[in-house]
Specification:
This protein is an alpha+beta fold. It has one domain. It is 48% helix and 19% strand. Helix 1 packs antiparallel against helix 3.
């Protein structure tokens, strides 16, 4: 594997984790939204990551892997009923349905995504340092 492959792998990881952090931030920001444009409460979104191999590189006899976002899905778990008869979205029994976003879980997911991002930055910088040392040897 050449150094450009390492940069591509780390770069794909950085891109995927950044999107994951963006989705988690969106979940936290919408954790109290009871009515979206569709008229329903906000539903938690999750990022599904998958590994890939570059077809261009396979044609040249080299395989470069990485990670990509396969899709962003909605969490199918139930909404949270809360008694608040004064809320404009309350039903006839006085309950509103809050999003299925658990802020503590989102913060844990954010921590995991930021650690994965940091690991990719570390790998990228290590590869860069190795390339620089190799160029110094060639002088």
């Amino acid at each position: 594997m050449d150094f450009l492959s390492s940069f591509n792998i780390s770069g794909s990881g950085l891109t995927a984790q950044r999107l994951r952090m963006d989705v988690i931030s969106q979940n936290i920001a919408n954790s109290k939204v009871t009515r979206t444009e569709e008229g329903m409460p906000y539903r938690r979104k999750m990022v599904v990551l998958t590994s890939f191999k570059s077809s261009f590189e396979k044609a040249q006899g080299r395989t470069i892997g990485g990670v990509k976002v396969e899709k962003i899905i909605e969490d199918p778990s139930g909404l949270v009923p809360v008694y608040d008869p004064n809320h404009p979205d309350a039903d006839e029994e006085g309950y509103i349905m809050l999003p299925n976003v658990n802020t503590a879980q989102e913060m844990i997911d954010m921590l995991g995504a930021s650690r994965a991002y940091e690991a990719n930055v570390t790998a990228f910088n290590a590869t860069k340092a190795m390339v620089l040392k190799a160029l110094e040897i060639g002088r």
